[in-house]
Amino acid sequence: MKASVLLFNFTDKSRVHKITRALLPLGIRIKIISKEDYLQPLGYLAGVREIASVEEKYDGEDFKDEMLLMAGITGTMVDQVLLALRKSGVGRINYKAVLTLTNQYWNAIQLYQELAKEHEMVTKKLTE
Question: Which residues pair with 71 in a beta bridge?
Fold first, then answer.
């Protein structure tokens, strides 16, 4: 699997352009995921050969926030990606994750819900 960043619910083309310009020098592929593919396993979307697609298409509501998933990116490379995004001026992306052996079988909705819970807990602790 090639190092990739999957983008979910990024509707601002200028933000996508900034992300692309920031990550291209790192050799990272950018993949914009359409809403109808939100039920696909994340591993399938990231190019994990062993994970099959599903037939079902998503036709529900889109996410309230953007979500970014790093696949095939580990260790210091994660830090490089985050630094490049910060320097690019793309602004805050609240929902970020790395593809793992566990979450590669989840779909985008499951990951989004998990990240939303984590974000809420962190935000709550910061305001206490």
Answer: 4
